[in-house]
Write a structure and sequence with these properties.
Length: 243
Amino acid sequence: MIQLMDLQKRFKQIEAVKGVSFQVNQGEIFGLLGENGAGKTTTLRMLATMLQPTGGTALLGGFDIVREPERVRGQIGILFGGEMGLYDRLTARENIQYFAELNDMRRTDINDRISYLAKMLDMEEYLDRRVGKFSKGMKQKVAIARSIVHNPQIMLFDEPTSGLDVTSARVVHEFIRSCKDEGKTIILSSHSMKEVEKLCDRVGIIHRGSMVELGTIEDLKKKYGNDDLEEVFMKLVGDNHEA
Ligand SMILES: Nc1ncnc2c1ncn2[C@@H]1O[C@H](COP(=O)(O)OP(=O)(O)OP(=O)(O)O)[C@@H](O)[C@H]1O
Ligand SMILES: [Mg+2]
């Protein structure tokens, strides 16, 4: 389970996240929707313990991101769209191995797990090549394998399909679904209403650092009397909306 409690982040004069609270249950995919600069990445980076909150906190799998960040790290898998953070000079296998070792996995377990993931993701052919010259889709698969090598119960996705073609985006979508089928707890940020409608059980709309609406997609459509999620979104965050 994931529980945010009045989570805040201030960067000097910018209040990027202004006290956000919500809960995501086990086996649920929660979608974070918001315009550019709304605070989605900042929120996810705090949950991933890459960034210290300036107020409030969150519990991930029972561990507190402020007081027990290293315990949190062992519970979570992260797939962030833009910066994949792979080492170009290492092979795909070495990239995954390195991350698994950081998570204190045993060598034999690591080898077995990598063989399994390479097969599942159809990346056996290039497993032992350096990732430097990989296409974006190939890199994305390495990043996917790395994100779940330690079998985390919680998955954080920040625009995981940005910049990917239809085929690669589908691989990511199937991966997110398989995580749900395994009972993982998931947060996904996205700009794509289609993606959100396809995958998410509930969504939260974040605007200028605050959560302005939260519910199932059906609930939101009903509440705003509109069957088009994009129009509901525009009603909530559009230019003529009072912040
Ligand atoms: N390291 C930082 N230093 C200063 N300000 C930052 C920093 N990171 C983010 N911000 C600011 O915080 C606000 C929220 O940014 P954030 O990246 O969380 O938005 P986002 O919802 O992920 O947007 P996008 O959809 O463009 O990815 C923005 O005003 C941004 O400029
Ligand atoms: Mg972002």
